[in-house]
Amino acid sequence: MRLKKVLLYPFYINSPYFEGYAWAVELAMRMKAKLQLFTTTTLSSGETIAQDSIYHSLLEAHGYYLEHYQHPGGTSSEVTREANIVRGELRDELILHLKKNPIDIVVIDPIFLNSQFKALREIEKESHGMIILPKEQQPGENKDSQPMADYFYDTLRKSELYKLPENFFSTLGTDLSVFNYLRNFFQKNQSGA
Amino acid sequence: MSVNVLSTVCDEDLVKAIRLDDRKALGELYNRYYKKVFNKCFSFTKKQEEAFDLAQEALMKAFDNIHSFKGESSFSTWLYTITHRHCLAALKKNGRFQFHRLEENIMGDEDKNDPTPASEETTERAEQELIMYSLIKALPEKERDLLNMKYLHGESIENLQQQLNISGSAVKMRLKRTREKLNMLYALTLTYGLEQVLDQIELFTAG
Known about the structure:
heterodimer; A: 193 residues; alpha/beta; six-stranded mixed β-sheet; globular; B: 207 residues; elongated
């Protein structure tokens, strides 16, 4: 039995993925979950990239998180980040990975979605939950001008949520005021749908 | 501070700015070092995946505790020390760091009647052990096997004599030369750094 929830964030290394990465780290931190970072050495253009470049990029992405997301005095060291770097076509490898490894929530970046729209149904099928981040989210947008919790929940509110576990909201951090607001918001949306 | 200005600011001033919750300063300082930390971890592990895990942990350890940086050394020294110790601890935890007895025995062969008091701090000792471990690992196979057989597995000279099919004095001579070589490499490491010395060994071995 797994004690920790597992989130997965797939990305192409040659696309601007830092924003989605940072949000996924923030979600993992609030859920006290483990975050799997999934990519391939094969770029969307078909070329290949050396593994160390991917590791460097992931470390750089975390610098972006520290600069733009982590609240002063906060810590992200409790978030276990695990890099899964595979060879081959990202879509096929991702589906294969999801079939073999139970993932609680897959966080999908809209940039990733552009090239993998057809895979969406399969990703949803093979995971226990899926969050598609909003398209209008832009690097740097709003983050520095509002409290991070607001920005985080604002992004969550604009995201598309699929099959999320029943206890998703109750595991989401300790910010009860935002949590209550969001739960009501989503319940209203679900009943209206 | 603006991004353009930040690139000209020294590490220690960036730390001061970070203490005042300057997030851009945090980003700048982190970006200066994450690759170096990864490379340092890789020099220990020789595996990129492990190096990544260790690098992200070491970076977090340092940046989460940046307020404890007192400025007694440069920031880079402080960060590398954290990285170094983190790598050591991880290697020990994974059981890949088991040459504790070897170093004692190497010294002990010549100095059995001259016990040196264990006065150094545990961490310093651990660092020495890691250097020794890395150097032994980089030695040519014959020399490495000989040291492993003698000091790790505790084989007697007689046993080595039989296994290697050479005389007892030849075994002792080989051990002596290997230890001397190791000592020399150790001294070079203290002067030039482990990474440099390992690179040189690799070059010579490849040649």
